[in-house]
Amino acid sequence: MLKKFEASTLILRVILGITFFVHGFVKFQGGIENIVGWFDAIGLPGFLAYGVALVEVIGGIALILGLGSRFVAALLALLMVGATLKVKLAVGFLGNGEMAGYELDLALLAMAVFIAINGSKMFALDQFVFKGQKTDTTSL
């Protein structure tokens, strides 16, 4: 049973990592200055765009590799809460025809919260980096 759980968690971790990496990469590729301007336009400090994009790129890579998965997933969950409350909630679950709704944000939030709570050990570099350190397995 534990192997099925770990395999399922691995799939969630890697897909979540790829998704955030791509979203962050596109922010830089498309011109981060545009995102800075958009942040300013919606009432957020523009410099936060750099932080969000970096967390998405670096966090995505970290999730794919399995480095600090719980911590990274918690950060990404906070990003999704912020995005949903500040931007997407007003346009509804499915959007308004001009902007996508918060359905994807909610799914990504759920995945991130799951990883933050449960961690993901299978094929995670954390298992090699911290090999020999005692981990809590009583919660499984």
Describe the structure.
The protein is an all-alpha fold and 140 residues long. Helix content is 69%, strand content 0%. Helix 2 crosses helix 3.
List the helices and strands and how they pair.
Elements lengths: L1 H28 L2 H10 L6 H18 L3 H20 L14 H16 L7 H4 L11
Helix pairs in contact: 1-3, 1-5, 2-3, 3-4, 4-5
Sheet with the most strands, sense and barrel status = none
Helix content: 55-70%
Put simply, the count of helices is 6
Summing up helix and strand content along with how strands pair, one would put the structural category as mainly alpha
Radius of gyration: 16 Å
Integer average pLDDT: 93
By DSSP, the count of extended strands is 0
Strand content: under 5%
Shape: globular
**N to C succession of SSEs:** HHHHHH
Low-pLDDT stretches are none
Distance between the termini: 10 Å
In brief, what are we looking at here?
By secondary structure, the protein is mainly α. The chain has helices spanning 2-29, 32-41, 48-65, 69-88, 103-118, 126-129.
Features of this protein?
globular, mainly alpha, about 140 residues, single chain
